[in-house]
Amino acid sequence: MTSDTIHLDEKSQRLQPKYEQNFSASYQPRVSYHYNPKVSGYHYGVRHPMKPFRLMLTDHLVIAYKMYEKMDLYTPKPATQEEMRDFHSDDYLEFLKRVTPDNVAKFSQQLKQFNIGDDCPVFEGVYDYSALYTGASLDATQKLISGSSDIAINWSGGLHHAKKFEPSGFCYVNDIVLSILDLLRFHPRVLYIDIDLHHGDGVQEAFYNSDRVMTVSFHKYNGLFFPGTGDLNETGIGKGKHYSLNVPLNDGIDDESYIRLFKSIMEPLITSFKPSVIVQQCGADSLGGDRLGSFNLNIKAHGECVKFIKSFGLPLLVLGGGGYTPRNVSRLWCYETSIMTDCTLDSKLPEELPFRNFFNPDYSLHPNLGDKLDNRNPKKYLENVKMKALEHIRFLNGAPSVQMSEIPPDFKKLTAEEEAEINELNDEDRMMIDARDEARAGELVD
Predict the structure, then answer these.
(1) From start to end of 198-288, where are the E strands?
(2) Whether residue 347 is found in the same domain as residue 429
(3) Which is nearest to 395 in space by CA: 219, 261, 236, 281?
(4) Is 1 a member of any domain?
(5) Is 196 annotated as a binding residue?
(6) How far is CA 90 from CA 95, 112, 138, 166, 197, in A?
(7) Quick check: is 6 in a domain?
């Protein structure tokens, strides 16, 4: 930071760093940022709360703060139908590919079959949009698998409600499930953490009978709020019994209560389950003031949960999710990008930021979003939820042993030769693997 007595010329101000680097952190991960700008150009409809342009706002903030200097940047290709077929059914994907607002009348039979309606409308390019955000998550996943990234970020992903045969809750393709399936080919145990306002039902359902994926969701639950699932008694079935953990919350939970509960549950869970990789869904609708939300969380409190998970030093896939007040969504994900890169950002938004007026009147990265609603989570209720969660964790009785021969089939992301090469890599080789990746189509380079 410059002294008030020193006045920089316009060029010097433009080149001045917009962040302070924390070099004292003991863990200095390699971070990659995966974003295809085309994904922000789609539109669910005028009255629909999901606004993909929130991704453009997020990217503008990341660029304005110059955090691109601290990450490897990738413009990923869309996922192929073959890749998405690893979880979703052929007939559903074909429907998404063929249906448009102009020909929707021809698909009257399928509209009901595939749960098309107000929440999940047919809009122009719905298949291409789904392929773009899914492709970004799969690209981020591959960087973790190859060892070229320790933390990989895709804010366009995290669409956790989509089911195998249908869309749900604004989500058409479940990029999270597809990413976890890829991770299971190289990791014995995957931990999935969801801090969206809504229950991560699509991911829980996909791995409900697996002991290799632990799904944890902190969310609003009253039995009626969408999607209507996520009670404490949903713990998994068969081999997956006790490998789903839900933390149901009431309206108005505040920063201190949320952080304390989150840390008190996640630390013993990670210690017991011993994941080798973590997938963190960072839905922004759990912030105070969200258009569809009913919590009182501020941006720093949400980020504190992500920072805590980062502190375990495990490979980490960071995804977006819900969030329906775009200016706050972009603030949050920009701030959480700074957490991943160990950057401290000025709370005043950069003057060079495009669409800066969108953030008036405060032009701040950290507006007050709390105290808008009464906190209906008394200490006794939260203590009861915590005790039940800890009892649930004790049932795990340590990490399950895994026969890595029992892995999902080859998903054709890598050739057999590439897989063998990755398995033979030592740590030094892994540091250099990104050079072998070479500038794939669309990759951002200096």
Answers:
(1) 213-220, 244-249, 277-281
(2) no
(3) 236
(4) no
(5) yes
(6) 9, 17, 19, 11, 30
(7) no
Counted domains in the chain: 2
Q: Are 184 and 346 in contact (CB under 8 A)?
A: no
Beta bridge partners of 73: 33
Report yes or no on 103 lying in a domain.
no
The predicted-structure confidence for 73-101, as pLDDT tens digits, reads as follows 999 999 999 999 999 999 999 999 999 99
**Element at 94 (helix H, strand E):** helix 90-98
**Same domain for 195 and 297?**
yes
Q: Which of 232, 264, 213, 254 is nearest to 386 (CA)?
A: 264
Alpha carbon 182 to chain centroid distance? 16
Q: What is the dihedral of CA 164, 167, 168, 174, to 10 degrees?
A: 60
253-302 pLDDT, tens per residue?
999 999 999 999 999 999 999 999 999 999 999 999 999 999 999 999 99
Provide the mean pLDDT of the chain: 89
Shared domain for 343 and 434, answered yes or no, is: no
Q: What is the pTM of this model?
A: 0.88
Is residue 119 annotated as involved in ligand binding? Answer: yes
Asked if the peptide bond before residue 354 counts as cis, ω within 30 degrees of 0, the response is no
Question: Looking up tokens 């999940």, which residue turns up?
Answer: 120
Q: Do 420 and 382 share a structural domain? A: no
| CB distance 376 to 251 below 8 Å | yes
Helix (H, G, I), strand (E, B) or coil at 246: strand
The H or E element containing residue 21 is strand 19-21
Query: What span, in angstroms and rounded, lies between the C-alpha atoms of 323 and 318?
Result: 15
Residues 372 and 429 in one domain: no
Residues 434 and 359 in one domain: no
| Run of H or E including 316 | strand 316-319
In terms of Cβ atoms closer than 10 Å to its own Cβ (0-12, 13-18, 19+), residue 259 is middle
CA–CA gap between residue 95 and residue 137 (Å, rounded)? 22
**Which residues are marked as active site?**
161
Give the angle subtended at the CA of 46 by the CAs of 296 and 80, to the nearest 5°: 90
Structure tokens at 177: 């499930």
Domain check: are 434 and 331 in the same one? no
Is residue 214 domain-shared with residue 355, that is, in the same domain? yes
> How far is residue 151's CA from residue 312's CA, in Å, rounded to a whole number?
12
Residue keyed to tokens 């922004």: 284
What is the extent of the structural domain holding 427?
A: 412-441
Q: What are the backbone angles phi and psi of residue 104, rounded to the nearest 5°?
A: -60, -30
